Structures are given as C-alpha cells and as structure tokens.
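tool=predict chain=A
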Amino acid sequence: MLLTTGGSEYLTTADVAARYRTAASTVRYWRHIGYGPKGVKVGRRILYSQAEIERFERSLAEEQIKKSA
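tool=predict ok
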C-alpha cells in the first residue's frame, strides 16, 4: 500500500518486502540490525520513503561496483 503525504511517497514493510522479493520478517530483521532502508515509525507502523529506498539501492549499486573493481 503506497501512502502519499505532502508529495512524498511512503511504502509499508510489506511493500518493501515485495520490492526485494523477500519476507516482511526479513525487512524487520534488516531494520533491527541496521541494514536496509531507514524506516520511520508512524504510530504502530514503520514507513519507508521512496527517497530512502532509492538511496539504499544506490548504496547497493556502489558496493557492487567496488567489489567488481
């Protein structure tokens, strides 16, 4: 479920899990260990901004470039 507020789009934990083809529990574990996109707690939910998802994906791509060089 994509949420939009003030021009920013936010994804739920389930959305992030679907995007990376993994379980929601894996996304929660990533958050617990400090890996993955940074989430923001809103009430009882953790939401991930589209900008944060893109930042995380850029960092993954940069790591891959460094490993292959």
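The first strand starts at residue 3 and ends at 5. The first helix runs from residue 13 to 19.
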